[in-house]
Amino acid sequence: MRHVIFVRPDESGWAVEFEPFAEPRSFTSGAEAEAAAKDIARDLAHGGEPAEIRIHLKDGSLGARLRGPGRGVEWA
Question: Where are the domains of the chain?
Fold first, then answer.
């Protein structure tokens, strides 16, 4: 099963949403949120779990989709 991690704008800046989290994690910048999402994806990959990061723009549209196959992936 591929895990999906979302980076989205929210009222306080940016949020990272990932199903195991009870609440989204908030960040003041998109770069911080993206880095946190990559950390989560990297941890999943080291456990052999594939992950996808979906980064949304300020207008809510999808700006980027990053996919990793699982173990051994390096998130730049």
Answer: 3-61
pLDDT in tens, 33-57: 999 999 999 888 888 888 999 999 9
Phi, psi of 70 (to 5 degrees): 130, -145
* Residue 60: Cβ-neighbour burial (10 angstroms; 0-12, 13-18, 19+): exposed
Radius of gyration of the chain (CA): 12
pTM of the shown model: 0.85
pLDDT in tens, 12-36: 899 999 988 889 999 999 999 999 9
β-partners of residue 55 are 7, 64
